[in-house]
Write a structure and sequence with these properties.
- Chain B: It is an enzyme of class 1 (oxidoreductase).
- Chain B: It catalyses: 4 Fe(2+) + O2 + 4 H(+) = 4 Fe(3+) + 2 H2O.
- Chain B: InterPro entries: Ferritin, Ferritin-like, Ferritin-like_diiron, Ferritin-like_SF, Ferritin_DPS_dom.
- Chain B: This is Ferritin.
- The structure holds two protein chains of two kinds.
- Chain A is an all-alpha fold.
- Chain A folds into two domains: 1-43, no CATH class; 50-224, Ferritin, core subunit, four-helix bundle (Ferritin, Up-down Bundle), CATH 1.20.1260.
- Chain A has nine helices and no strands.
- Residues 4-18 of chain A have low confidence and may be disordered.
- The radius of gyration of chain B is 26 Å and the shape is elongated.
- Chain B has helices spanning 2-20, 41-69, 76-102, 128-154, 163-194, 199-211.
- The N and C termini of chain B lie far apart (75 Å).
- Helix content of chain B is 69%, strand content 0%.
- Chain B is mainly alpha-helical.
- The chains are: A mainly alpha, B mainly alpha.
- The interface between A and B is large, with 43 and 44 residues.
């Protein structure tokens, strides 16, 4: 019985200590007589489930960069003299700028939570897209349809990361990460998806008739003013 | 039975909707005179390459921004500067794209313009000075590449001197490169002197200065 209590108290001390390991490390470091002692001090910003979710966030950043460049290509295509659709150019440039800045914000977020960025990690489904000879020189309706699919993929990926962070498991449960995604990313995705879906509805009715060329001209004028 | 009929109706109406919507999504081939398009292939090719170079530089700066944002590094001033540089390099790529579009280029093979090989090579630095020195080297290599584009566009096997582009690259791009390089070189010098006797304090103070 006595042995049991001893084990229990040792365990308890262990638990308490682990919650103050930064402080303990600092105490040890400051007591060291040899000033060159460089035992690492465990005082990182990490808490909660950032280690469990970090890789998903890193991939999410890289996917943003890939999409940003794809949108830039789509925008470039519309700005050549043959396409000459400045409204579409503006739409896709806007999407490229947004994904670029979101990527930077995500990197800042990962590092705010004590994580680091890895630029090499990309999901397999995004890698496999590349082998399918991606084409970004599309006609108007097709290009908006493609953008809508891209935005939905990004939105669903945020849901998935949110799901990882809300698992009731101490390694994964991290309400701060899920709240950040909820407030910083999800409303933006919702609005972009709704906007693009609206454009496809408009264009599919406008292009269903003899005035498609004129319709596209006017729709492009409309996009320039957005 | 009723549900089957409903399902069938839904299916039919759906297929009718698709069937009736043969949309006119494509436009006819255009016949636009080509005489005004006077850029030559070697020059266009080197310009296209430069767009990717600028984006590679952007991603390299992005890695610097990410490194100095880490809690264990904690240099928000450096991080801010490098993230801004990343976006600047991306703007340079967009400027080059806009120039080619203005000259009637980029009507084909746009999808191949940016490949997915832009991930930065170096992702960690021992000190701020080391990163600034890398940044200076990076700028110098970009400058060198712009000079090579100028050379190709001024004198190439087709003997076509692209005066306007060469002027744009010399007056606009090189101007920015040289000013940028002088700025970084000055920062390296100030920081290195600051750190001569007071390493940790020097970098700390310099970082906060960068936030101003």
């Amino acid at each position: 019985m006595k042995a049991f209590f001893t084990v229990l108290s040792v365990l308890l001390v262990g638990v308490l200590a682990s919650e103050e390991y930064c402080y303990d490390d600092v105490v040890r470091a400051c007591k060291t007589t040899n000033k060159l002692s460089t035992s690492p001090i465990n005082c990182t910003a990490k808490y909660g489930a950032i280690d469990g979710v970090e890789e998903y966030l890193q991939k999410y950043v890289n996917h943003h960069f890939i999409r940003s460049f794809e949108y830039l290509l789509m925008s470039t295509h519309y700005a050549n003299y043959e396409k000459n659709r400045l409204g579409f150019e503006k739409l896709f440039r806007g999407l490229s700028d947004e994904t670029w800045h979101d990527a930077i914000e995500l990197i800042q977020y990962i590092t705010k939570r004590g994580g680091e960025m890895n630029f090499q990690t990309v999901s397999n489904d995004i890698i496999s897209e590349e082998q399918q000879d991606a084409n970004f020189e599309l006609y108007e309706l097709q290009s908006i349809a493609k953008a809508l699919d891209i935005e939905k993929k990004l939105a669903v990926e945020a849901h998935r990361i949110h799901g990882e962070a809300t698992r009731k498991n101490s390694k994964f449960h991290d309400p701060e990460i899920s709240s950040h995604l909820e407030h910083e990313f999800m409303p933006k995705h919702r609005d972009t998806i709704r906007k693009l879906a609206g454009y496809t509805s408009d264009l599919s009715t406008l292009l269903n008739g003899p005035d498609s060329s004129l319709s596209l001209y006017l729709f492009d004028e409309y996009l320039q003013k957005q | 039975m009723k549900t089957t009929v409903v399902a069938l109706c839904v299916f039919l109406s759906c297929s009718i909707a698709i069937g009736s919507a043969v949309l006119q999504c494509e436009h006819k081939e255009l016949d636009i005179p080509k005489e005004w398009k006077d850029m030559v292939d070697p020059c266009v090719h080197s310009m296209r390459g430069q767009i990717e170079e600028e984006l590679k530089a952007a991603m390299q700066y992005m890695a610097m921004g990410a490194h100095f944002s880490k809690d264990t590094i904690n240099r928000p001033g450096f991080a801010k500067m490098f993230f801004e540089s990343a976006s600047e390099e991306r703007q340079h790529a967009i400027k080059l794209i806009s120039y080619l579009l203005m000259r009637g280029e980029l009507t084909s093979r746009v999808s191949e313009l940016i490949k997915r090989n832009l991930a930065p090579k170096t992702t960690s630095w021992v000190t701020g000075v080391e990163a600034l020195k890398d940044a200076l080297k990076l700028e110098a290599s970009v400058t060198k590449k712009i000079r090579e584009v100028i050379k190709v566009c001024e004198d190439n096997p087709t003997k076509y001197n692209d005066y306007h582009l060469v002027d744009y690259l010399t007056g606009d791009f090189l101007d920015e490169q040289y000013h940028g390089q002088r700025d970084i070189a000055g920062k390296v010098s100030t920081l290195e002197k600051l750190m001569e006797k007071h390493g940790a304090l020097g970098e700390f103070l310099f970082d906060k200065k960068l936030l101003e």
